[in-house]
Amino acid sequence: MPIAVGELKVPWVEDHVPSRQLAKEDRFRHLLGQIASYLKDLGLSYGFYTTVEETVFLQVDDAPGGHQSVLKYSPIISRKDTYHPGQSVTLRQCFYFLGGHGGTKPSPYHGGESP
Fold first, then answer.
1. What is the Cα–Cα distance from 79 to 64, expressed in whole angstroms?
2. How confident is the model at residue 69 (pLDDT cuts 50, 70, 90)?
3. Bridge partners of 62?
4. Rounded distance, CA 59 to CA 40, Å?
5. Distance CA 108, CA 43 (A)
6. CA–CA gap between residue 107 and residue 95 (Å, rounded)
7. How far is CA 49 from the centre of its chain?
8. Euclidean distance between CA atoms 40 and 42, whole angstroms
9. Rounded Cα–Cα distance for residues 56 and 51 (Å)
10. What is the pLDDT of residues 32-54, one digit of tens each?
11. DSSP string, 21-72
12. Which distant-in-sequence residues (6+ apart) come within 8 Å of 43 by Cβ?
């Protein structure tokens, strides 16, 4: 059974680059809209959006009562990011968590939220 779904976009299209869309809330929501639909349609809790240069990890969090879900997202992780304990993680570490522990450990996400 799958635990996550991902979307890969080309980095040379400016509208695909998360760091260029983050400041514009409506554009950032649009950027994550397709992957959010995949998560909902497949009933999955974890996903990712990547251009390979930049990656955002996602988690669907069901609100108490089950009437609404919240889409949480990680900080943007660059393929060049290095590990600094308590400050930053690498892309490999994130995929390791997702692949090996995605359904069994508490969420590492502390980024913003998008309905």
1. 35
2. confident
3. 69
4. 11
5. 20
6. 13
7. 6
8. 6
9. 9
10. 999 999 998 998 889 999 999 99
11. HTTSHHHHHHHHHHHHHHHHHHT-SEEEEE-SSEEEEEEEEEPTTSS-EEEE
12. none
Q: Which two tokens stand for residue 22?
A: 């983050």
pTM above 0.70, yes or no: yes
What gap in Å lies between CA 59 and CA 44, rounded to an integer?
A: 9
3-state secondary structure of 14: helix
Length of the chain, please? Answer: 115
Residue 3 one-letter amino acid: I
Q: Are 112 and 29 in contact (CB under 8 A)?
A: no
Query: Does an H or E element contain 4, and which?
Result: strand 4-8
Can you read off the two tokens belonging to residue 96?
């390791």
Higher local confidence (pLDDT), 105 or 101: 101
